[in-house]
Fold:
Amino acid sequence: MKIIKNMFDSRRKHFVKGGKLERLYPIFEATETFFFFPAHGTQTGPHVRDNLDLKRFMSFVILALMPPFLFGIYNTGYQCHLASALSTDFISVFLRGIYIVLPLVIVSYGVGFFWEFVFAVVRKHPISEGFLVTGLLFPLTLPPTLPLWQAAVGISFGVVIGKEIFGGTGRNILNPALTGRAFIFFAYPVRMSGEVWTVISGKAVDTFSGATPLALAGLTAASDTVETFLAKSGLTFSKLFLGNYPGTVAGTSSLLCLIGAVILITVGIASCRIIIGGVLGMLVTGFALNLLATQASMPYLSLNPFYHLVMGGFAFGITYMATDPVSAPGMDTAKWIYGFAIGALTVLVRVFNPAYPEGVMLAILFMNIFAPLLDHFEIRLRLKRRIVNVG
Amino acid sequence: MISVTIKKGYDLNIEGKPSSDSEDLPKPEYVAVLPEKIPFIIPRLSAEKGDKVKIGSVLFEDKRHPEVKFLSPGGGEITDMEFGPRRIVKAIVIRLDETESFETFDSISESGLEKIGREELLQILLGRGVWQFIRELPFRDIARHDKIPPAIFVTSDDGEPFQPDPAVYLKGKKELFEFGIRILSKLAKTVHVVGAVRRPATTEELDGLITHTCKGPYPAGDAGVMIYHTKTASSENRSWYICAQDVLTIAQSLKSGVYSVERVMVLAGSASIERKHIRTRAGVPLEHLVRGRVKTGDVRYVVGGIFRGYTAPKESYMGFYETSLTLLPESREPQPFGFLSPGFTKPTYFRTFLSALSRSDLAMDCNLHGDVRACINCGSCAQVCPVDILPQFAFKCVLADEVEEFLEQGLLDCAECGLCTYLCPSKIEVCKILRDAKAKYYKEQG
Ligand code: SF4
Ligand code: SF4
Structure:
């Protein structure tokens, strides 16, 4: 450790004010603080400070992402081997998963950090740890079949348009990872429609369809229920819940997202109001639609609402995307409404516009836009209760 | 008795809290007054270097209100006047004589007090250098004596871990304290004496005098917090407040006819070897309090408490209002991969370190524990704000210079407690931003 520390100390002079690499200070700072908790002292009272900093904060989000991430690697490899009639033993499947997923992650981090560095240097602000999360979230929401260059374009869009245009971390209205994903969804619809999201190695087996549950659900014929139609394709409720079916890299397993949600809520980083609100919104809307459903109407209307919870990456979205504090509202009641609306909108988009299976993504982005407004109303109400103090 | 419960706030589990033992210190060689550390005043000197002064001689007055006089806390010779940039008077240092002489005033007896009118009492308090112990909310400047305040709050404990325990300085002084309360009662419509539930000994000591009890974590019991939770109309915003120990000083000064310089102070903090109460006098040198009882290594001397106090060089002196000296270790060496450690010994408000499993006291140093980042709207600051401000929104209004907006957000209710800054994971100086904005607004109002 001493050696690394000396290395930083001897290089510092180039980066501080007056040094020849002064402009690159943010990069130096980011690298140094990655290795060491800095020893900066407090300048004013309070003279002691809490131990939590943004790096720790974001590390916990990454930790909570590990269960769906690791499973996602496994599942991606598993689906590939299944569809290509290769051996499905754990090791080879996992290695295959790494082989497919890792390039996406590397491209996302690499390209994303490049933009972070550029903006940090131009704007002379430190590099925010927030990107550690964005850079991992983004590839996890992609179909494993996505070409790497499209991933690179997507993350660039997410970081530059989703975040830096607004003035950087903390000022962005939209969740950057989702913005990037939405861009790919609209720019390259063929890749994202959910028809074929399984990487094929060699030749696909004959029976392989590879369609995702949402794509299937949209295809259900009027005489059938969605549940039985899904079951015919081998997608039972428990399978949807566990996640061993084709889908985005890490968005398939509701179970593991649930574990992630428990971690985040336990350490107090994600708001349980948003998550529970989202689940409630989804169930309530789902039941309400059930009431509307008649024999002749779309079968999607009568889908058991619990199916909505386990399909289409909802669990992943509500756990990791909707709870991003920057793009979510800050006030307590606003958080309930925000979560609830995300759940409700997700169902509505899915049911009434099956061409857009990405209900949860659109719902979150839409509510991101409304988050400041929700906050605004709640703050107004709150301020009304204050006794005016103008000195 | 009215009881007030304050839900928000936070008690630090910091190591090095003082015991309730107290020791008497011999006379120091020097004492000093630090005009620079008295908020808002503009000092105009009436003495100069080399002058012989008595205890109670006028050293300077506040240019804004020349009737507010600051008296010498010692008898002897002014050996030093320290000036800062732009000729700000930093310190007036007095070398004490073997036997000090003091100015004498008329002493006022219990019955004498009854005959004195409000105006006359004001003049007495002003002339004897004790008026300035009474301060006015929301800006915490010296009270304006031309106004009758809606109430005076006598505060004793706000849960700051390093302030003197009121039970120590009030012990056996109930009568004197009662006299002080009678003095204050002549100045305002009502006097509220606030006792803290966490200090039952004070309540016993002041049996029958306490009008409000407050319960809750730091800073419950602070004047600003108390007024926020008890006020029913805007007119109460300009209430006055005074610390219980200063009530004793006022009472003693009037009763004895001599400017009272006795004080009970606290020496504590994890870098201090002994942590206890100390009976000494106003304006003593910090070294005199410490007397070598400090751990080796880089130590920060904090005068006035870890939340609101300031850093002072160890050659400095105690300030006019301050009664707490906290010695804290300066920030340590950088820690390799600090953000990955389990954190059994890292105190935190949050639950991201395993220390959250227990509330036992832990050592804390002056490390910022991170770097300044943009606000991520995590809302933690609003969870602890004792006066229901939304610091994350208020400070952004301040930075955007939206005066109307930040007043509406309740900026002036801010108790300047520092909790928002303490726990901000983005290490933003929220409290400083709000405090400075308040002071600026006050100065602009004139
Ligand atoms: S805004 Fe900050 S400093 Fe002011 S009272 Fe609230 S927590 Fe304390
Ligand atoms: S604690 Fe800091 S980062 Fe969190 S909302 Fe408050 S100011 Fe923003």
In short: The two ends of chain B are 37 Å apart (CA to CA).
